Structure formats: structure tokens, C-alpha cells
Amino acid sequence: MTKSPDAGRTRQALRDATMASHDRVDSLFAGFSLDQPDDYADFLSAHSRALSALEPAARPDQARMPLLEQDLAALGVAQPEPLSLTAESSDGYRWGLLYALEGSRLGGAFLSRRVGAGLPSAYLSATHGKGEWLAFQRALDGAAAEGGEGWLNDAVQGALAAFALFAEGATAQKAVTHG
């Protein structure tokens, strides 16, 4: 499968529109030390707070919440209270949520290398298989092409909502841990 020059056009538009929100989330999560069991458990709990609300609305092909629950259980940590998401019903909004979730899978590949020895990493290790990221970008581009007027704006709103939920999860977990 060769890469078409247009593959990823919608992803790039979403990336450009959500860069500040993405940077904020990265900054909030940078404070968690993934090689320390307590910090890593807090990192996973923060993700769990957001992911438990996002996956039911986004309906990804490969849900990662069961893997996250497995890692938390292996650390002896109870599932945290999930955040709530008031999801819009538009197709574009759902694709925006998916964009953020699939992008977090890419980040998981990098982060999984920072997880301490002996700590569970099923969630962060659930990365894209060969060709899956390109296939997602093509599906995203196809959905955008069929979506009509307002689709991209809805997708941006969905991606921003996902980033906001991850930021809220990090902030909530830090408040629980540090008071």
C-alpha cells in the first residue's frame, strides 16, 4: 500500500486547529514519572477518568479501556470515578474524538518505553499495527469528504472536547494525589 499525497489532509487540519490544547495536555501529563509505581498509577488513573467517557462516545475499532483497567488492577489501584462527556451526535464530532484517541495510541508507543521495569504496560503498548495509522487517516479523509458543510468544524469540536477531558483527568488526579 503506497501513501497517497492527500492522505492525512484532515488529520493535519485537526492537528493545526487543536495544537494548543494538545500541548496543554502534554504539559499536564509530563509531570507524571512513568518509572515510579505511584506516579505511573496516577498517570493511568488520569487517563482512565477521560477514556472511560470518550470510548463509548467515539466507538473506536480497538477499545483500550479494558487494557487500562487491567494495568490498574495489576497495580492494585481501584478504577477512578469517570469524567462525563456531553457528546454531540454528529459524525464529525465522533471523528474528532477518534482523532484524539488514535493520536494518543501513537503517543503510547513513545511513552511505553518510559514505563518502569516490572510495571504493567498493556494500555500504552496497544499501538497501531502496520498500516493502521495510514488506514485511519484515509478513513478520516473519506469521512470528511462525505461529511459536507460543517463536518470539519464538528470534528475540531470533538477533538477539542477529547483534549479537554484528558486535561481534566490529569488535573483531577493531581488534586486527588496532592490535595
Describe the main β-sheet briefly: none
The 3D shape can be described as: globular
Question: What percentage of amino acids are in beta strands?
Answer: under 5%
Level of helix content?
Answer: 55-70%
- How many E strands? 0
The gyration radius over C-alpha positions equals 16 Å
Q: What would the average pLDDT be, to the nearest integer?
A: 93
Low-confidence stretches: 1-5
Q: State the separation between the terminal residues, measured CA to CA.
A: 51 Å
Number of helices: 6
Order of helices and strands: HHHHHH
Please name the defining characteristics of this protein.
179 residues, mainly alpha, 6 helices, 66% helix, 0% strand
Characterization of the model:
With 179 residues, this protein is mostly helical. The protein is built from six helices and no strands. The longest helix is centred in the last third of the chain and has 28 residues, at 151-178. The chain is globular and about 45 Å long.
